[in-house]
Model the fold of this input.
Amino acid sequence: MTSHLIRKLEQFTKLSSKDKHVLDQVSTEGLRQLGAREDIIREGERPQAVNLILSGWACRYKYLEDGRRQIIAFFLPGDLCDNHVFVLREMDHSIGTLTPVTIAQIPRQRIEEVSLHHSRITQALWWESLVNMAIQREWTVSLGQRDASERLAHLLCELFLRLRGVGLTDGDSCELPVKQAELADALGLSTVHVNRTLQELRAAKLIVLKGKMLTIPNLEALQDVAQFSPNYLHLDREGRHLDAND
Amino acid sequence: MTSHLIRKLEQFTKLSSKDKHVLDQVSTEGLRQLGAREDIIREGERPQAVNLILSGWACRYKYLEDGRRQIIAFFLPGDLCDNHVFVLREMDHSIGTLTPVTIAQIPRQRIEEVSLHHSRITQALWWESLVNMAIQREWTVSLGQRDASERLAHLLCELFLRLRGVGLTDGDSCELPVKQAELADALGLSTVHVNRTLQELRAAKLIVLKGKMLTIPNLEALQDVAQFSPNYLHLDREGRHLDAND
DNA sequence: TTGCTGCCTTAACATACGTTATTGTCCCGT
DNA sequence: ACGGGACAATAACGTATGTTAAGGCAGCAA
Done:
């Protein structure tokens, strides 16, 4: 079940079987199960461990005093919530589930141990951190410059590619287990306008969305309307990383 | 002249004189001077070094194909542009100056050397990375949920506090050496609307802005209109960090 | 079956913000 | 002292998106 994390990291670098074993190990300890719409950790609390999502979807979010909410990031299976957070004294935002979720809570000490002895994993975790930062930056670009349909299309492309990276797509389809209200909170739009925009993408045959199942019949076309360029996901593995002994 | 970086890091932890010496050292090598509105590094290029801003303002930005531009982050004196970028093969965005700038280019090897031998610096650099990520998240919140005046007020609060953290404020004033067009690109607004919104804040006596000089007569009041909470800057230094030998 | 309840859909209307355009002001070079 | 260029300030008008409200459909409990 770490397989998602391993699969993700192997987009960046080849891991030795020892590396994989360590990762498997880490993700069987400290298991925690949550239902849908529960908080994993809340703003103001002290971060104790790094949370690894084994299954289900979660999100980072923040409320303003008057109740407006922004979803700041989506967490998918294989995602780590904030490597090294424990440097900070308290959380400045909350993390909550969107669906039922299983996580592995990796204690600080365990992380330090691993990064001391497994430089390839350390390197790969750096890569995953940097990609997450790039995703956050791209959200800034979307919210600042893209209009509703571009923004929605962009998000769907991002999620699809991230899911494909951990083996959770099936051809041109994947699950999208979130409500329109949650999409709205992530996109900085109203639910009404998210609905309108979904209809628009449907009418243009760019997406098929029935229940929780999303199909993107022509990914290139969807990328085009979003001005989506996958470079920021840094999925190009280089030759220089292929020398692990397996 | 590293003093800005040192001063910033000391908001998080006390540094030994040895630590400070190392940081001073690092920031006198690889100096580079740039004029206003020049690029430090461009999207697509391979990152070679970590850039430390010694003086002047810069920004991270990204253009869409059709010419829209989003400023993703501001860099102030004492800021490091992307510790560990060199894990990635190419830049997914550009970094450019807003004013004349002096930077120190710190080669990869130097960073690794320092973080190997000076754990307190390593720790402090982690803190600075995490704060930068928090700032990026807060921009997501602003762009997604805050209206024009809240957004502008929030940005001004952020910049003022960051400048204060590196000793670049004078009472309730600081420099704001950016054009309204640049504020617009950062805030996801048009220049016309930025202008309107500045007038609004001026009329409400929340800011005084003459030339490149910003004064915030009542920081609390400005924070209130922005729903600004400084917790995300993580400026609360803890007792546990006070044990360095100086 | 019935009737909730949660979510999606659609419509009519309101508004914050964008666009285009003009004028004003300061600074700098000659 | 003059003219040009860059930037700031305003005005008139257009539009993307928000708000409020109502109806529809599926799933679930009794």
